[in-house]
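Researcher: First entry.
Model:
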Amino acid sequence: MADHNTNAAAELPDTQAAVDNAAADNNAKSEMPTTYDPKAAEQKWYTYWMENEFFKAGLRPDAEPYSIVIPPPNVTGMLHIGHALDFTLQDILIRTKRMQGFDTLWLPGTDHAGIATQTKVEQKLRQQGISRHDLGREKFLEQVWAWKEQYAETIHGQWAKMGLSLDYSRERFTLDEGLTKGVRQVFVELYRKGLIYRGKRIINWDPAARTALSDIEVEYKEVNGHLYHLRYPLKDGSGFITVATTRPETMLGDTAVAVHPKDERYKDLIGKTLVLPIVGREIPVIADDYVEKEFGSGAVKITPAHDPNDFEVGLRHNLPQINVMDEGGTMNEEAGPYQGQDRSECRKNIVADLKEQGVLISIEDHVHQVGHSERSGAVVEPYLSTQWFVKMQPLAEAAITAQKNGEGVNFVPDRFEKTYLNWIENVRDWCISRQLWWGHRIPAWYSESTGEVFVAYSEDEAREISGLDDLKQDEDVLDTWFSSNLWPFATLGWPDENSSDYQRFYPNNVLVTGYDIIYFWVARMIFSALEFTGKKPFNDVFMHGLVRDAEGRKMSKSLGNGIDPLDVIEQYGADAMRYMISTGSTAGQDLRFRMEKVEQARNFANKIWNASRFALMNLEGVSFADIDITGELTTADRWILHRLNETSRDITRLIDSYEYGETGRLLYNFIWDDLCDWYIEFAKLSLYGADAAAKAKTQSVLAYVLDRTLRLIHPFMPFITEEIWQHLPHEGETITLAQWPVYDAALENPEAVAEMNLLMDVIRAVRNIRAEVNVPMSKKVELIIKAGSEETLSIITRNDNYIGRFCNTSSFEAGLNPQTPDKVMSAVVTGAELLLPLSGLIDIEQEIIRLEKEVQTLNSEVERVEKKLGNQGFVAKAPAKVIEEERAKQADYSAKREKVLARIAELRG
């Protein structure tokens, strides 16, 4: 297994000599090894790119800027295959735009990750038998910074292995000095606008990590639990009220029982007093619209310190807030006899006591959704706590207005816009304080004498504002998303709006990210950017899916189905992995990772390598200045230039539309089918022929097409394309800066396409006949072509050398009405009939059976088209061009059928 803990770029030796040897001049080189060695090429070229700073932004001051900031991975450990997908998709975009002449910036960086990183370091310390409290805050943070440095270096090495074209000179970290300045400015400004406040509210509490969580850091899982029905007696002894709860341990904090004000069952009990079982505390019966009178008994126990809805009811009725647990989920002094017990232990004991007192009516099985901490996995406790909050509604309204006015972000796929709006329209205030030591410390200071709070940019400013010396900074830090939601603009120099990078590269052109963090990150970046820059943070947000295993399951440690991208690279090379993951799914859809698909991508890379080796062996001595694709060209030359031109146009459009899967399909088909299987084979006639002028032209076309093809696939497969390109006749230092192929109307050649289509049909048909009757390609055959028109005959005549060579004919005759033997094998192509004399080749009866099967196939096609054209709904709605195409198919199939029927008649005659 590869060593994952090294910086791949930094450890490699100087490669300039190797590069110079690969491209000592602009002449074609033929020293390419028989097989491609991914490891050697990847190490060599990444170092070369880094040493020459090809990826640095700002080198084209007069060009249009294009920027992407990387979604910063957490410094919690290794990158996974999901990161590889996300980063590869971005690299494809940035490499394409760089080749198109843009001044590109792809800004790298990492996220401090707050609770996730602190948890990792605390686990490490526990293995040593110590806690963070043993070290103290300052010493503990030294440990976390050391962890950060180690894993940031690991991530650098992984980025290098993946071939990412990042501008490391602008690398950022969410706890660096610039981000810290931005975070403080945002906090202070929001506080002074009244959009940040400190208050006592019910929040999500992680008792394992002992910190608050935001709503979207809670994962809800279906749990098999119980519903406990309890009897709360009236103080006057006149009866009782039945309530139900899934968490009987919280009843120790009950301060009321609520009923609906219009519930006739309880109208005479409102205002009366109940006696809380176990504790003996007197609590009132109150009326509140929150209660659903049709649900259960219509009476609800109210626990303001342990339920967010009960908290709101408590505020309306001025109820006490009794917290019965401590920060670790252990029952506190308010829990009376259960003090010191874990919450789960307390539940078991209190149920037994309720049963003994005759208060427990029944227990029923109950399946319900229970919140768990995304980080620690602990069951989240709704917990009354004093925390810092962002008032979300004003910020959300600005983002909603921008989106609905057409001034917002373009979501790809567009269905995610609805997802985004639905969340932001219903967003609740955001709890931003965390009871951690690792993170941005809250810029608030408290007076130990007066208890006042002073929010400021620094302690000096807080002292100046307060006029006090006994100030102590808030111990808590900010939610990690509070800093990462400033990432698109704070990384570019904001809050200094005169920063050259901010002026040039903001807003970013696109954010590429998974759909799973649309709430955590995407939405928050949008409202923060609008509030503090007055601009949306990026023009587009491309949402890709998640990488799942071959069975469609989410990758996880518990399943043991995770994929380390470096293991894949070690086995198959970076290019194969990049090509597979980037082209293997459509926008917004999950990708099933199959190793056999990576193997197929590796085979594709080898196909490119082998085709390039052939080309180079036939380009010896050709210089870049020699390449000339004008003048007299063969049909195959003109056809491949047309197909390259067409493919360049379509690939550019598809990449701009983030249609990676379709891009991959087009590239694969063009390279494997058009270039390798057809053009290179056709080119051999000129390359091996005696006509020096024809050979020179085909050499030029071959060099030109291979060069442009390598450029088109370079963003997907950067290493192998650089290795091959450096051997080709070229100009420039690197393919990474080579001009992107652009559409050229002069290369359009539909006539060549028509000719090649006919030639390919003829060759395929003859080969199919050979296969059907087991006639090997090595055996020469007689071939007669009956052309359906002068135009078809002219094409066949002009290209008889191709037909003779690839059909391997002993004799070949073409005409409008050539003389033919009585017994032949035949095939029909558009515009012509192919006849192979049967003598010595086949069994005539078997040939009749084959032709009858062909008639059945053609009958089905004719019937299908006639049925479609007979459908009045189709004819009324379909575009005229589509109808015309269907009618052409009908005529073509019918003509072919008639010819096949005629051949059957001939054979039987």
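Researcher: Second entry.
Model:
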Amino acid sequence: MQLQRFCSVLLLSTLTFCLAKAQKPVKNTGNWPVIEKQMKPWTRWWWMGNAVDEQNLNVVLKKYADAGLGGVEITPIYGAKGFEKQYLQFLSPEWMNMLHYTVNKANTLGLGVDMNTGTGWPFGGPQIKPENAATKLITQQYTLKAGEKLTEAIKVKEAKQDFAQLQALTAYGTNGEVLDLLPKVQADGFLNWSPRNGSWDIYAAFAGKTRQMVKRAAPGGEGFTLDHLDKNAVDVYLKRFSDAFGGKPQGIRSFFNDSYEVYGATWTPTFFQEFKKNRGYDLATHIRELTSKDSTSEHIARLKSDYRETMDELLLHNFTQNWTNWAHHLNAVTKNQSHGSPGNLLDLYGAVDIPETETFGSSYFPIPGLRRDAADIRNVDPDPIMSKFASSAAHTGGKKLVSSETFTWLTEHFKTSFSQCKPEAEQLFLAGINHIFYHGTTNSPTNVPWPGWLFYASVEMNPNNSLWPQAQGLNNYIARCQSILQSGKPDNELLIYWPIYDVWNKAKGLDMALKVHDVDEWLHPTAFYKLSKELSKSGYSFDFASDRLLKQSTVNKTLISTNATAAPYQVLIVPQCEMINPETLDQMIKLASNGAKVIFQVLPQDVPGLNNLETRRAQLKASLAKLIFRDGVDGIKQFKIGAGLILLADDVQKALKAIAIHRETLTDTGLQFIRRKTNTGKYYYLVNHTAKDIDTELSLNESGQVLIMDPQSSNVGLAAVRDKKVRVQLKPGESLFLNVDQNGTAKTPWVYLNKAANSINLNQSWNLHFTEGGPELPDDQQLAKLVSWTTLSDPKLQAFSGTGVYTSSFNLSSKTAKEYVLNLNEVDESARVWINGQEVGILWSIPFQARVGKYLKAGHNTIKIEVVNLMSNRIRDMDIKKIQWRNYHEINFVNINYKDFDASSWNVMSSGLIGPVSITAFN
């Protein structure tokens, strides 16, 4: 039996590994791709206290699969109080049995399984003893004058630093002398040295410990945070997993690492050696500058740039690549959130198999009727340019998947509608993300009273959510989108260099963690960001490139290839930047010489860092001197070199036009887009996030037969094309795919909604019957007019969260129009519709409309609308009544501002079908 289980797990792991790696084409039946599990949305799946068992796992996994999820990502965290006897120790034999059961059961249901390589975050645990824990630089200063000796041992004064190691002792004289005093320190810690003259400042540098513990750790996962910069520490950390796995694959598709939140980890014991090897000089002689509070010194900025570059190398090689290699030996891949790391995000994302970004908070969209309560707004909105760091690493590396932790703190608890989720997910798709992970789903046993176990920062994508009966609406939409966005290859014409050395060249601070929450500091003020925003708005598509990526890039005829399996780029753009490595500039010139087109917004002026500074400056100057530009039109300067061309133009868009790199003019309408390239054409994904209806003819940069594909309804039809322009109709909040196929043979035309004829207002009385939810089912209602059910006389309705079914009828005098559109107008919050006993579908988001002509008949018609509301009113009622529903270890339960959660003062939220409901005929 054990052998049989192992063989099945091995087979599943091998298959999923191949699936993640393969660049296979989309399979088609008819006009829409077959949906595979990785195309469906996945979810982060919290195992609270590891209190899981086969019976409950069997129940919830089936619910997830039935609702349209494609997979789960196991992340064990702290548990609920009172259930300690059910806790399992992380990676224990009992825990491993539950993992095996989960993988096998998920496999039978068509679900995939990912796993956090740890519990909570960041990586750490009981196997991390102090010597392998996250490390920080501690410095102490002493002063000696001629003839004086230190009367105290040189030991760390900071409390709880028993494992701190003295690594450097450097003396600075008044005349600029620098002495290494480390050899003068005796075994007892006393300094055997006295200055002969002058006054000396002495700096001691210790490798201390941050003492950070794993946040939100699960039982068996508690302990110190790992020193990610040290290979030996990473190996020690991973050995615990290898031992628990017996060194064999476990059927895990991907191992996951959350955003880098290792606070104050500014050092590692090997830092001095690595710095000297890679930067060429001894950092130990610069302790005074490294710890200086001077935030204006150019010299200190250069020193810290070198320090930050060394941090980048250590994190890339010792952790990211090391961890990925370990996963590959288990026939699994890695999925990593690199943001927040003190390194080059593009390279760190690119070193794993599935780069993952995240959205935190909510974005503003001017879509009419879209709720965005002031109390739900975080300090920083999700930024699509930030998300493009992850997608760029995937695209330039030829990786099929790029994922996102999605909807974290999208709204306050229990208030998130599917309508609010949709544009946030679409914004990710537009940024190149094609593998959505919900944040998230808490595993909750069936015997735990409603609302079950919940995670404190989640939008509660779980079966206890009152919206869950209609979750398929959102899930199927995302699956259809991702089925196309994971097909073919990305189609971005521009490659934009990210000037990381300008970011690193700051005298303030020490390590520089590039966080999602700090984009106002390190991203938004830059010329790189401004240019990227302008190009995107104007209709250009692009990815970002690092120095390392450019070093390995080649030219095929005129196209820049960043990877053998990646789509090539037509031009490299270098935004205005101050600092650049001479080697990077030379590579840019080499690419141009080999046939590429390169555009400099402004020529760089200097080199980063301190090592061989004047020699490298001379090298940069010599390379720049080779660029002999001649004046061209519109102020664009040109330098022809080899088979290629280098342009110098402050107005990059003018330069692009001069070399016939064309933008997509469709963005002039307000539409946003992203393209995917296929063997016979392209897919355009179009989204209307404006406040206006768009009915227009679009010019596309690709020609061929155009098929309109609606990912919400799955309707497909041949687009109307006139004078090479494609007609599209999109209401605010809607999206479409255009499949431009040079070999297209489709014949069924898309039905456009041209001239509205008459409308039928469904103003007959409605019967309202409640089918599921709580705290108790309200009585049936007879409605002369549609209103929020919370305003009706039954007192149960203000506290009710669940499902209400509306039924009514209407007459259609004749059925002669080309199409009929049902408009529900206001729905709080999602509706499933039947007409004449036939299911129309789930209308789960704004504008709550559907084409219903095929369901109608002349004469008498019936309509049934099943509506689900939010959890908020029921939670409000429980808090008013002081019913205990949250009782967890660790953080327990907090609101969006990380204060104790209390819904008792909330207003009752509108619920049900508000309408007015109408059906409009279109000729």
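Model: Note on the second entry: The mean pLDDT is 95.
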